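FYI - complex with FE2/S2 (inorganic) cluster, inputs then prediction.
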Amino acid sequence: MAFHRLVRLDQLHDGFRATFRIDREDILLLQQDGRVFLIENSCPHQGFPLDRGSLRGERIICPRHGFAFHLERGDCFQAPSCRLKTYLPAYDGSYLGVEI
Ligand code: FES
């Protein structure tokens, strides 16, 4: 595993969203209520990009069919077999990143 810098911490704010391609993984970084989440940017149902999803509490709603995924655990309310990949934020000085 290696640390990959994503953004400076002072760039983050509620409502922040950005996507990153690291190795072969598409990652969505977002901040909500002061908390940072890192999730795969592809719905595990049929692959729709989740950066266009809406947030409802700690869940992101896929705009394609409306499945809701927990931003930390990745579980899906409507289809338990659909699990979203999530990542732990990692920090290096004034940068937030991810270890992959
Ligand atoms: S593609 Fe996301 S819910 Fe179907």
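The chain has one domain: 3-99. The chain is about 0% helix and 45% strand.
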